[in-house]
Amino acid sequence: MSLVDEAAAAADDHPPLDDDGLPRRTGTMVTAAAHIITSVIGSGVLSLAWAVAQLGWIAGSVSLILFSIITLFTSHLLADCYRSSQTGKRNYSYMDVVNSNLGGLQIQLCGIAQYSLLFGLTIGYTIVTSTSIQLIKCGNDKECRASNNLFILIYGVVQIVLSQIPNFHKLAYLSIVAATMSFAYSFIGIALSLTKIIQGNGHFEKSLVGVPVGWKGQTKEDKLWNVFSALGDIAFAYAFSSILTNIQDTLKSSPPEKKVMKKATSLAILVTTVFYLSCGLIGYAAFGSGAPGNLLTGFSSFKPFWIVDIANISIIIHLVGAYQVICQPIYAFVEGWCINKWPQNEFITREYSINFLGMGNLSINSFRLVWRTVFVIVATVVAMVLPFFNQFVGLLGAITFWPMTVYFPIEMYVAQRKIKRFSGAWNGLQILSFFCLIVSLLAAVSSVHGLVMSVQKYRPFQNVS
Fold first, then answer.
1. Which GO terms fall under biological process for this protein (predicted)?
2. How confident is the model at residue 363 (pLDDT cuts 50, 70, 90)?
3. What distance in Å separates the CA atoms of residue 31 and residue 412, rounded to the nearest whole number?
């Protein structure tokens, strides 16, 4: 064997390592932006026409832009906290960042908020995906109403298989495909809305205040609840901060991770906001006060209907990938804790390499196989048992938007930069935090109201689209 061959073999046995002793990260701005877009532009983008309809042209537009600016600002603050300011030590997850900069009880509060939200999202994604499958099956048959449980089970099986992807580092291609699909169904929703406007001889909604009191019997109280819900939907649409640190941990160390991450978040939020504004405003222009909660359901009589089917297929593919992106922080936390607790247990630590259908080696870990399978099964069963679980997801989003997206990034930045209390910078940051707290509380109250209304109609295992 030549010296070159020996060197290559040695490199294979001892892959290049980063400064923390782990395999060298290979993530770039493109892969990071794809991960972010995959988690941000979810099927919730299709509800923004309804949200704008409740707020009207001015308040709807201002809300979308304002929350994008707030999220961009706090995401940049969070990116600065990836490495400890004094030691340069990496923080691998959101909880690690909180532990490094704040500590104490705030670590537990962060964990409860983060993992409750992520678990809720997995259930919400399961329900939304099954609904899209059902819409494809029924087409434009308005009388088609059947249980989604079979489709929920199919989605669960697919996620059990994909859950064996070890970590974020192996998800780059899946995220890029998922992000592409999110663009696809957003474009279709926008195009169909424009078509509806044109077919209506250019007529579009002109109300500046949104759905008026009295429309289809709407009372002032109903109007208020819907406005709060709309604000919650918009705030929740930008609530992705809990996975940003995990994504940043995939980036190459040169150039500095925080610089690349800021560029990635800026690109992702810019793209996201353009799509949010387009879907929200054009959808409202097309449907007016009757804007549906899911933009695509408003085109049930559209011909050819296969265009709507393509949009629903895109949603399905996107949420298959988004589910895995959302789950990775949960997987990493549980598996990291178990490895630290039982480092000598081979069931937990040993990796097996299996040649998968001749396409290359697949790394299998017994503990990962068992526990991730159980996790997906639990999420799938809950989605079947609670057909109104999306209300819970809305409540979780309302409750966690303020701490995860605003409070913790601001407090960690203040602690890291040692900003003095009651200074100009400190006062400005606290005012921003207080404003977002009020919005979260209003949205949470509205979600509780919607949840109570859903419970009154509750029927176990009756998830019907």
1. amino acid transport
2. confident
3. 26
SS3 350: coil
For residue 133, is it within any domain? yes
- DSSP labels for 389-418? HHHHHHHHHHHHIIIIIIIHHHHHHHHHHT
Per the domain annotation, does 240 fall within a domain?
yes
Sequence-separated (6 or more) residues with CB below 8 Å from residue 109: 403
User: 435 pLDDT exceeds 80?
Assistant: yes
Please state whether 139 falls in left (phi above 0), alpha (psi between -120 and 50) or beta. Answer: left
For 202, the domain range is 28-455
User: What secondary structure does DSSP assign to 228-258, as a single string?
Assistant: HHHHHHHHHHT--GGGHHHHHTTB-SSS-HH
Number of structural domains found in the chain: 1
Question: Regarding predicted confidence, which is higher, 78 or 444?
Answer: 78
| 169-189 mean pLDDT | 81
Report which of 192, 198, 125, 193 is spatially closest to residue 162, judged by C-alpha positions: 125
Instruction: Judge whether 367 lies within some domain.
Output: yes
Structure tokens at 172: 């780059």
Contact 74, 406 (CB under 8 A): yes
User: Across the chain, which distance is largest between two alpha carbons, in Å?
Assistant: 85
Tens-place pLDDT, residues 63-92: 999 999 999 999 999 999 999 877 889 999
Nearest to 202 by CA among 277, 286, 289: 286
How far, rounded to the nearest angstrom, does the alpha carbon of residue 383 sit from its chain's CA centroid? 17
Q: What's the CATH number where 43 sits?
A: 1.10.4160
> In terms of pTM, does the model score above 0.85?
no
Return the H-helix or E-strand segment holding 364: strand 361-365
Collapsing DSSP to helix, strand or coil, 456 comes out as coil
**Residues 376, 159 contacting (CB under 8 angstroms):** yes
The full DSSP string for 267-326 is HHHHHHHHHHHIIIIIHHHHHGGG--SSGGGGGTT-SSTHHHHHHHHHHHHHHHHHHHHH
In terms of Cα–Cα distance, which of 103, 85, 407, 375 is closest to 241? 407
What is the per-residue pLDDT for 196? 87
- Comparing CA positions, the residue from 117, 199, 465 lying closest to residue 312 is 465
Q: Which two tokens stand for residue 410?
A: 């601001």
E strand or H helix at 435, and its extent?
Answer: helix 424-455
With 0-12 / 13-18 / 19 or more C-beta atoms within 10 angstroms meaning exposed / middle / buried, residue 145 is exposed
CB distance 436 to 444 below 8 Å: no
pLDDT in tens, 89-136: 999 989 999 999 998 889 999 998 888 888 888 988 898 888 888 888
Which run of H or of E encompasses 353?
A: strand 351-355
> Which secondary structure element, helix H or strand E, spans residue 170, and what is its range?
none
